[in-house]
Amino acid sequence: MPLVDSHCHLHFEPLRDDIEAVLARAHECGVAHMLCVSVGLSDIGPIQEIMRHDPGIFGSVGIHPNEAGATGSLVDDLVRLSAQDRMVAIGETGLDYYRLEEPDAARQQRQFRAHIAAARRVGKPLIIHTREAAADTLHILRDEQAADIGGVLHCFTESADFARAVLDQNFYISFSGIVTFKNAHALRDVARLVPDDRLLIETDAPYLAPVPHRGQSNEPSYVTHVAQCLADIRGVSREQIADLTARNFFALFTHAASAVAVS
Predict the structure, then answer these.
(1) pLDDT for 123-181, tens place per residue?
(2) Interval 207-260: pLDDT, tens
(3) Are 93 and 111 in contact (CB under 8 A)?
């Protein structure tokens, strides 16, 4: 089965400025499907434009925790926008306390809860970003009964204990190019423990290019390096990683699976 990049931002520079070549390189490397993830509601138009280039691109609707914009109508806005064609998830959302300024934590938490409410209403999974906020992230997932809808902890960099906790909450775990970094020993240990049926891979392009492209602009074709790294870690072939992560992607993002079946 072809590779899937489960999290990228094709509508960001420099990818959008060279989108045809970016997509061509992805297809040459066997990347057939990509999820283009929003970080703000103003992203929805640009994401729709990107999706017109390739039926293998899907989109999401959400506001990154570092982005302001939550309003009293946020749940309704998310529900409305997520009904558009090939919008398959709610997010990215979550908590990011890395550069926290009070009262930003409270705003992030309200926004996060609104995304979970929207996901439950529309029956689409969540894409979760968490940074230096593991305890509060887990508390809100439990408090809002996010396990009922599930989703993915994207670009995972947290502890093994946190990984086990979110797996218990019906979430998948996605690894980015960070897992290939020389000093990512603890993260590679986590990558060994994630069950086959909960593993995803991503680029988070244009950020976090994997070795041997570290420091460059990232793109979906580089997800092959993440797949190879995980294959080496788990003692299987890259083809096996490609197969199981693609299957997992469509098991989680069922609206994407439906779109592929229809096409």
Answers:
(1) 999 999 999 999 999 999 999 999 999 999 999 999 999 999 999 999 999 999 999 99
(2) 999 999 999 999 999 999 999 999 999 999 999 999 999 999 999 999 999 888
(3) yes
Structure tokens of 3? Answer: 């590779």
Choices 3.20.20.140, 3.90.550.10, 3.40.50.800, 3.40.50.720: CATH for 3-262: 3.20.20.140
Residues in contact with 154: Cβ distance below 8 Å, sequence separation at least 6, in sequence order: 6, 7, 37, 91, 92, 127, 128, 129, 174, 176, 202, 204
| Torsion of the alpha carbons at 203, 93, 195 and 230, rounded to the nearest 10 | 10
pLDDT digits (tens, 9 = 90+) for 66-89: 997 667 899 999 999 999 999 999
From 180, 181, 230, select the one nearest 201 (Cα to Cα).
230
- Please tell me the distance from the alpha carbon of residue 87 to that of residue 75, in angstroms, as a whole number: 16
Would you state the pLDDT for residue 140?
A: 98
Looking at residue 102, its pLDDT comes to 65
> In 3D, which of 141, 192, 131, 193 has the Cα closest to residue 170?
141
**Looking up tokens 């999401």, which residue turns up?**
60
Q: Measured between alpha carbons, how far is 225 from 61 in angstroms, rounded to an integer?
A: 27
